[in-house]
Amino acid sequence: MTTVAAPAIVHVEHVMGTAVSFHLLPGEADDVEAAAQARAALKRAVALLHHVDEVFSTWKPESEVSRFRAGLLAETELSSEVRDVVELCGRAKALSDGWFDPWAMPGGFDPTGLVKGWAVDRVCDELRRAGVVSAMVNGGGDVALLGDPPGGGRWRVGIRHPWREEALACVLHAEQAVATSGCYERSAHLVDPKGPASAKRAASATVTGTSLAMADALATALAVGGEPVFRLVAALDGFAAYWIHADGTEFATDGIEFA
Fold first, then answer.
1. Using an 8 Å Cβ cutoff, are 136 and 10 in contact?
2. What pLDDT is attached to residue 172?
3. Residue of 77, 96, 75 lying closest to 86 (CA atoms)
4. Is the CB of residue 20 less than 8 Å from the CB of residue 138?
5. Rounded to an integer, what distance in angstroms lies between the CA atom of residue 53 and that of residue 50?
6. Mean pLDDT value of segment 41-61
């Protein structure tokens, strides 16, 4: 007997200053309970994203991170989730040899380069617990993947070309997380913690891996640091990098698979 997959559940939520799109497969077509659980999990996931925005936004003066940046909260007074992100930022700073440094941002500690990926990772955990068999969650171009794509095979993720807005630089096979950063869009968010002389070394920087939070941070570091960070990512277990230099030359570490 051939089983038929349930119709996909598709949703786009505008939050955290970007659009987060969901494409979910809850299970078999006749599994009404699985579909209901998936929709409930999607609702919880959307609420989680808005909660993260309220806690971590640097644009909202009342957010916990804004109050921490303003010196109104000591680190010992932070909530457990903010402390977790601070710790993760410290790990990302160490792994990137300081090229990702939320403490070097204007105005003080700013986890923006990691927290969106961290939030999407948590969303995928919520979907997984609800029994969702397949999902792609795209948070403003940073993608987390769950299970296998509809129809089987492997996930294929397109990487936007840095100069031709409607074109793709390449298409990659991926299994869990793909994050891209670059100077072609929102270049002001890329701050070089080691001085302006090395800024904007990459036209586009993509990191794949097991965690979107860490891939997000490492892609930001690669966009700013260029070749030194490329070598660092190449040496990390579970992560790989695809880098387009400002002059248009392209480089890929082992682990990058072009579709």
1. no
2. 97
3. 75
4. yes
5. 5
6. 98
- What is the distance between the alpha carbons of residues 217 and 176, in angstroms, rounded to a whole number? 15
Query: Which residue is associated with the tokens 């869990």?
Result: 176
DSSP assignment of the chain: ----BPPPEEEEEEETTEEEEEEEE-SBTT-HHHHHHHHHHHHHHHHHHHHHHHHH-SS-TTSHHHHHHTTSS-GGGS-HHHHHHHHHHHHHHHHTTTSS-GGGSTTS--THHHHHHHHHHHHHHHHHHTT--EEEEEETTEEEEEE--TTSS-EEEEEE-SS-TTSEEEEEEESSEEEEE-SSSSGGG---TT-GGGTT-EEEEEEEES-HHHHHHHHHHHHHH-HHHHHHHHTSTT-EEEEEETTS-EEE-TT-EE-
Count of positions (residues) in the chain: 259
Tokens 């031709």 locate to 164
CB–CB of 246/224 below 8 Å?
A: no
- CA dihedral defined by 222, 228, 234, 237, rounded to 10 degrees? -80
Which pTM value belongs to this model?
A: 0.92
State the pairing for strand pair 177-181/142-147.
antiparallel
Whether residue 119 contacts residue 16, with contact meaning beta carbons closer than 8 Å, is answered with: yes
User: How large a percentage of the chain has pLDDT more than 70?
Assistant: 92
Q: Which domains does the chain have, with CATH numbers?
A: 9-258 (3.10.520.10)
